Amino acid sequence: MSLYSEKVMDHFRNPRNVGVIENPDGVGEVGNAKCGDIMKMYIKVENGILVDVKFETFGCGSAIASSSMATEMIKGKPLSEALKLTNKAVTEALDGLPAYKLHCSVLAEQAVQAAILDYYKKNNIPYDPAEFKCEHCAHEGEGTEE
Ligand code: FES
Fold first, then answer.
1. pTM attached to this predicted model
2. 35 catalytic, yes or no?
3. What 3-state DSSP class applies to 5?
4. Among 35, 60, 134, 137, which one carries the catalytic annotation?
């Protein structure tokens, strides 16, 4: 019996794009208060394209697999497209996650959005708050950060 798909196991055992980007253009850090897992996403942006993405995840295997898959899905893409990445798309790309592990893929979606929001803010780039659907970013958009 296997709880996890081969893709989840593959991305868990050989996560892609793990690490830190020196002088990143944006960093997003999100966590799940319930399980205590933390995900940090670093992005490098050139002409509106995510030329590099790296992550550090202190968490469960599903969170590692989700962040790994998320980086693969957004690397080389325009920011506008990366913002549309949903946890559902990440889960599907992983050939599914057990229901009680779906929140791990939500962290990946949120970390991507938080990193892009950080990039916009640092560079004073006007953005549409409606594009940021994750709870974490919506919260920041209200100016109640930290
Ligand atoms: Fe919380 Fe996986 S158990 S992110």
1. 0.91
2. yes
3. coil
4. 35
